[in-house]
Design brief:
The chain starts with a helix and ends in a 14-residue tail after the last helix. By secondary structure, it is mainly alpha-helical. α2 packs antiparallel against α3, α2 runs parallel beside α4 and α3 runs antiparallel to α4. It is elongated. It has 4 helices and no strands.
């Protein structure tokens, strides 16, 4: 409801910047996915993968933060960088899970 009110109030800005807002939101969501994968890898003892996923997540969030700058081509640059980071994430995750398809959950000792 609040988002709708803000959207209505600032419609002229939204209509010219919608793509940038959507791109930023999507890359934050992808960064969260990379962060969750980092957390799960850390819990399951796959520290190398955890580090790679965490670095990708941090770089994606930094890219989304770049959206706050006042540069004409920022959306294009952020999209190229973050899509490249997502391709790296996907490639690393494919290698990690190639034979397992799912990560084993850590077993808790009684």
């Amino acid at each position: 409801l609040i988002a709708s009110a803000l959207l209505f109030e600032h419609w002229t800005k939204f209509s010219t910047r919608a793509h940038g807002y959507a791109a930023g939101a999507m890359f934050v969501a992808l960064a969260v996915a990379a962060g969750v994968n980092a957390w799960e890898c850390r819990r399951s003892g796959r520290r190398w993968y955890a580090g790679v996923y965490a670095a990708i997540a941090v770089l994606m969030i930094a890219g989304a933060g770049f959206m706050a700058t006042d540069w004409d081509h920022k959306v294009l640059v952020v999209e190229v960088v973050d899509i490249s980071l997502f391709a790296l994430f996907w490639s690393v995750q494919t290698k990690e899970l190639w034979t397992d398809t799912l990560r084993a959950r850590p077993t808790s000792s009684p």
